[in-house]
């Protein structure tokens, strides 16, 4: 019987099994390649695209008042809500903003975290169920008792709003606060107590695509490769308003931006030093870490980096020009550093690991000072260790001011 079946089938035009297998392999390979390309494209696009809405991932279980009349917010316990230090809670659709204390346990409710409501900045908490926790604890310098002038910096892309806080002891020494990706000028307010103690003038700037300043030509982050031009404008503003000595204070991506400005700008020589908090020293390291953290295959992550840094990827990422990731790698470029740098970076930073900061400090001990922190999440060093953070800045500035006065 089997023989007859074979005989019966032989006259039909059949495709050899090897060709069928090869065809299936090509089809499967094409599907895999398409999936890899799509995921890599999504990854690359997310890196450079400003978020219109924050991810509201903090779940509010209840808001209650204790026996002393103090308001408390009880949140579902997770990695974000248990993050050490105070923070700001931003409700969905930005309905309200409140400052919260450091987390505390809720007796008898191990799945909850309690944070005291210290100040309601705007809106109402009535009916709020979800929100976003930000390390930028203050909405305006006045929240810490500082008088701030509203000024405008003429950026390449238009007028960039900024806050100017005048120094008392050294008004001609200016610190320019450069916030990070997804943040705004409010991020640097946490440093004002230290900067005021040092007696310096502070300029808290905005830059392209940050939601406060105008958008850039492509509406995409340059990871420091484009934003440094806006910091250059801020430096020019400072010079025109009496700055004799200028220090850049960069947070996260603001660190990458500050390093590019000091290196590439015609005004780089006007920069005395840099103070960087949780800085991106090497974007390749950060992108690789983020790919692993999001369980993205290594090959997909590398392809995403390729899309970011090559002209062929622009139609996927929407960038006007590719990002030069090599130029943003200061571990490899350590020998090219010319400015004194203070690095402040937590060993527990799970978003921008401090490995590159450690390497850079080891490679250039002549220029780079490193202060490591523990238990603090990304750029939460001043939230978790306010006194240590402030003293580190005060000591560094005192040394820079003394050297500037002597020269």
Automatic annotation (TrEMBL):
Origin superkingdom: Bacteria
InterPro entries linked: AB_hydrolase_1, AB_hydrolase_fold, DNA-binding_regulatory
Organism, as annotated: Glutamicibacter uratoxydans (Arthrobacter uratoxydans)
Record flagged with keyword ATP-binding: no
The AB hydrolase-1 domain, residue ranges: 174-292
Family matches, as PANTHER family: ALPHA/BETA-HYDROLASE, ALPHA_BETA HYDROLASE FOLD-1 DOMAIN-CONTAINING PROTEIN
Transmembrane segments: 20-44
Gene Ontology molecular-function annotations: catalytic activity
The protein's name in its UniProt record: AB hydrolase-1 domain-containing protein
């Amino acid at each position: 019987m089997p023989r007859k079946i074979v005989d019966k089938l032989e006259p039909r035009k059949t495709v050899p099994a090897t060709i069928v297998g090869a065809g299936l392999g090509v089809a499967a390979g094409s599907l895999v390649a398409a999936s890899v390309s799509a995921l890599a494209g999504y990854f690359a696009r997310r890196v450079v695209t400003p978020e219109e809405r924050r991810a509201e991932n903090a779940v509010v279980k209840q808001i209650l008042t204790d026996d002393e009349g103090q308001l408390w917010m009880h949140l579902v316990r997770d990695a974000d809500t248990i993050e050490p230090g105070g923070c700001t809670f931003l409700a969905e659709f930005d309905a309200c903003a409140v400052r919260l204390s450091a987390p505390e346990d809720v007796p008898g409710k191990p799945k909850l975290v309690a944070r005291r409501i210290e100040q309601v900045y705007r809106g109402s908490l009535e009916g709020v169920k979800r929100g976003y926790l930000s390390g930028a604890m203050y909405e305006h310098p006045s929240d810490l008792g500082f008088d701030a002038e509203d000024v405008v910096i003429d950026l390449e892309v238009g007028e960039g709003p900024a806050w100017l806080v005048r120094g008392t002891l050294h008004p001609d020494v200016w610190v320019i606060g450069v916030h990070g990706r997804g943040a705004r000028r409010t991020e640097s307010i946490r440093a004002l107590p230290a900067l005021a103690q040092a007696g310096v003038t502070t300029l808290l700037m905005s830059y392209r695509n940050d939601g406060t300043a105008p958008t850039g030509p492509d509406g995409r982050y340059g990871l420091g490769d484009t934003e440094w031009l806006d910091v250059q404008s801020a430096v020019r503003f400072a010079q025109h308003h009496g700055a004799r000595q200028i220090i850049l204070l960069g947070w996260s991506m603001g660190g990458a931006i500050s390093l590019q400005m000091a290196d590439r700008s015609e005004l780089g020589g006007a920069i005395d030093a840099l103070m960087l908090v949780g800085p991106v020293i090497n974007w390749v390291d950060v992108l690789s870490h983020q790919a692993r953290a999001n369980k993205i295959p290594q090959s997909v992550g590398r392809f995403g980096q390729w899309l970011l840094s090559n002209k062929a990827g622009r139609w996927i990422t929407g960038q006007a020009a590719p990002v030069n990731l090599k130029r943003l790698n200061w571990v490899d470029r350590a020998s090219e550093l010319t400015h004194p740098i203070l690095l402040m970076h937590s060993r527990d930073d799970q978003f921008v690991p401090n490995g590159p900061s450690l390497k850079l400090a080891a490679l250039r001990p002549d220029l780079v000072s490193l202060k490591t922190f523990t238990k603090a999440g990304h750029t939460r060093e001043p939230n978790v260790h306010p006194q240590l953070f402030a003293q580190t800045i005060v000591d560094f500035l005192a040394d820079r001011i003394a050297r500037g006065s002597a020269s």
